[in-house]
Design a protein that fits this description.
Blueprint: E1 2-6, H1 17-26, E2 31-34, H2 39-42, H3 52-63, E3 67-71, H4 79-84, H5 111-128, E4 134-138, H6 154-168, H7 171-178, H8 205-233, E5 238-243, H9 252-256, E6 261-266, H10 268-274, H11 279-284, H12 293-304, E7 310-315, H13 333-343, E8 348-351, H14 377-392, E9 402-405, H15 408-416, H16 425-437, E10 443-446, E11 457-460, H17 468-476, E12 480-483, H18 506-509, E13 511-518, E14 525-526, E15 531-532, E16 535-541, E17 544-548, E18 554-559, E19 562-565, H19 571-585, E20 596-600, E21 604-609, E22 615-616, E23 624-627, E24 631-632, E25 637-641
Parallel strand pairs: 1-2, 1-8, 2-3, 3-4, 4-5, 5-6, 6-7, 7-8, 9-10, 9-11, 11-12, 12-19
Antiparallel strand pairs: 13-16, 14-15, 17-18, 18-19, 20-21, 21-25, 22-24, 23-25
This protein binds beta-D-galactopyranose (GAL).
Beta-D-galactopyranose binds next to loops.
């Protein structure tokens, strides 16, 4: 695994660059990402390019032994461009323009901006495509950041109509598929279809789902246009893009299909603060991040990526500036996060950013250096990791226990029609992931099309739209299967299937969901150490009840090797069902002390202490200690040879 850093030479005096490059190399970094926000310096006037400074920066960095990841600067179109075509900005759901003065101020459907993005990409690719310093390209920056995938502009409306026409051919087919007879929503032509915002009450969920799919396809197409140019002018270089945490605005499986390496930006403390963790977890893990946040995304994006090639393109090095509260990580955490990425198979961890900026929006965001250029605490941790990675050498093969199935339309569906507060497919997957990891298991988060043959257990937490092919593969799979609520409950156009849920999974499970209810907080049906909470599917069929609550309601059904969890996958009921499935699948589990997590490769056990106290390794984790101690300090990492 390489270590790298995100660097903005345009922010610093020219005389400083050699020092920075030397310090990077001395710290053990070998990659540097540059360029992704530099459009106004590359092309200060329309059509007038200033390459000198960037040529120079590339040379200085490469001379110091660093390989370069070059970003296309399309996330930050310059002011002159926005003034040339003011309608290139996106409109938000209220119809307001998202103006100049920060970043990501463009609409994916604006053809003129598409041409400009292609033009600047081509100019950069022609300039640096064959330069030996450039080993990788990053397209744009964080598609969707600041809620920028959906646009409700005229350009988006036109493009949406075209997209619909391609998908449905005839407007009657669309009306039928969406059920537009309901509330007289029928259209006479594609030209009549509006965007789903600004309706009086909720728009047809099928309309929203189509718009989500369309918006995702626009991102993928925008990205592909850059990829095609880069492949033409810079053959043999990898292409990457940086995805975000807990973000589902576009289909990452689709986007990843076009690039070589899927990157993601890991800010565990920011994510803990911003997302739906309990107040207790927010406190317990304030300086470490919840123990499943980083690993969840490693395993998710590895599963999205072509050939499982993925990396961390931005790694939090200290306090960030954008969460509600921005504490500093415990000493050791930056090293822990980096080694955990290595354990999960990253090709690169790149710290964001080299030096804290004394100006503009991110002044309060830490770097490896302080604003005055003096090392911040994370620099020493990066050095330490570089040394440890050398000591470890090859990690060996990936070990596979459990396939956890997720896809983006599942999350879109539960966002569009949650039916109960907070019932999200993504978070159901996260909770299942945590439950599996607390048993010490290796988890791969995979799409429906994944090859399941290497796993002993497949978990499908909440997958409303199930393909026939996936249903077929599950029927043929010979390990244990857990299927969660809402799975198979919708067709491609958001309608209930004729045979009701679980639709295509009916044969596998031998049951029919006859009624579904969501349950308010506190309305629970107690079982033996577990409870039915938040959701309950009532079921008919030949499947046998396996977990029955004290009042006779059934939480889990069993048919052959498959289980149907009729309540929301969370808490003790989830732990119970997973424990049973692991037992039946013959999977050896290693229950984790609170805050400890492990990852197994064929050569090593990697153990990570996310708690704020010392923990002694359970005896079941055997092997010679190569790094760290069996009694682990807070933020400690121990590696044992297997
Ligand atoms: C990311 C972004 C970076 C920087 C960073 C701050 O979302 O890609 O450019 O803004 O956050 O944490």
């Amino acid at each position: 695994m390489h270590l790298g850093v995100c660097y903005y030479p345009e922010h610093w005096p020219r005389e400083r660059w050699e020092t920075d490059a030397r310090m990077m190399a001395e710290a053990g970094l070998s990659r540097v990402r540059i360029g992704e926000f530099a459009w106004s310096r590359i092309e200060p006037e329309p059509g007038e390019f200033d390459w000198q400074w960037l040529d120079d920066a590339v040379e200085v960095l490469h001379d110091a032994g660093l390989d370069i990841i070059m970003g296309t600067p399309t996330a930050t179109p310059p002011k002159w461009l926005v003034d040339q075509m003011p309608d290139m900005v996106a409109l938000d759901a209220h119809g307001r323009p998202r103006g100049f003065g920060s970043r990501r101020h463009y609409c994916f459907s604006h053809a003129g901006y598409g041409q400009e993005a292609a033009r600047i990409t081509r100019a950069m690719a022609q300039r640096y495509g064959q330069n030996p310093a450039i080993v990788c390209w990053q397209t744009d920056n964080e598609y969707g950041c600041h809620d920028t995938v959906q646009s409700f502009s005229d350009a988006a409306r036109e493009a949406f109509r075209l997209w619909l026409k391609q998908r449905y051919s005839a407007i009657k087919a669309l009306n039928t598929a969406w059920g537009n007879v309901f509330w007289s929503m029928e259209y006479r032509s594609f030209a009549e279809v509006e965007l789903p915002n600004l309706t009086v009450t909720e728009a047809n969920p099928a309309h929203w789902l189509a718009f989500r799919r369309f918006s995702s396809d626009q991102v993928v197409a925008f990205n592909r246009a850059q990829v095609d140019i880069l492949r033409e002018h810079s053959p043999g270089r990898d292409i990457t893009h940086n995805a975000m945490g807990f973000y589902t605005g576009y289909d990452h499986h689709d986007l990843a299909g076009d690039i070589d390496i899927l990157g993601w930006d890991s800010y565990p403390l920011g994510f803990l603060e911003q997302f739906r963790f309990s107040p207790q977890d927010k406190l317990n893990y304030a300086r470490q991040g919840h123990p499943d946040i980083a690993a969840f995304h490693h395993d998710l994006y590895r599963g999205c990526a072509r050939d499982e090639r993925w990396s961390v393109l931005e790694q939090q090095p200290g306090p960030v500036n954008w969460a509600r509260h921005n504490p500093a990580p415990l000493p050791g955490m930056v090293a822990l996060w980096t080694l955990e990425a290595a354990a999960h198979g990253a090709e690169l961890v790149s710290y964001f950013r080299w030096r804290q900026a004394p100006f503009a929006q991110e002044q309060m965001h830490a770097g490896l250096l302080r604003p005055d250029g003096v090392p911040a605490p994370a620099l020493a941790e990066a050095k330490d990791v570089a040394f440890k990675l050398k000591t470890l050498g090859s990690k060996g093969e990936t070990c596979r226990d459990v396939a956890l199935v997720f896809d983006y339309p599942a999350e879109w569906m539960t966002q569009i029609q949650p039916q109960g507060e907070g019932l999200s497919a993504l978070w159901a997957v996260f909770d299942c992931y945590g439950a599996l990891r607390r048993l010490g298991l290796n988890v791969d988060i995979v799409p429906q099309r994944a090859d399941l043959s290497q796993y002993s257990l497949v978990v499908v937490p909440c997958l409303p739209i199930v393909s026939e092919a996936f249903a077929q593969r599950l029927t043929e799979f010979d390990g244990e299967i857990i299927v969660g609520p809402r799975s198979g409950s919708r067709d491609q156009d958001f309608c209930i299937p004729d045979n009701l849920a679980p639709g295509p999974l009916t044969e596998l499970l031998d049951l029919t969901v006859t009624r579904s209810e969501s349950l308010p907080l506190g309305l629970e049906h107690a079982g033996d150490g577990w409870a039915i909470a938040r959701w309950l599917d009532h079921v008919e069929g030949k499947a046998a009840p396996e977990l029955t609550a004290q009042d006779g309601l059934v939480a889990c059904w069993r048919h052959g090797k498959a289980r149907y969890l009729a309540t929301w996958p969370q808490g003790e009921v989830l732990d119970e069902v997973i424990a049973r499935a692991c037992r039946d699948a013959g999977i050896a589990t290693v229950p984790m002390p609170k805050g400890l997590r492990i990852r197994r490769t064929s050569n090593y056990w990697f153990v990570f202490n996310y708690s704020a106290s010392e923990i002694t390794l359970p005896e079941t984790i055997e092997g010679e200690v190569v790094i760290g101690l069996r009694t682990m300090p807070p933020a400690g990492v121990t590696v044992l040879a297997r």
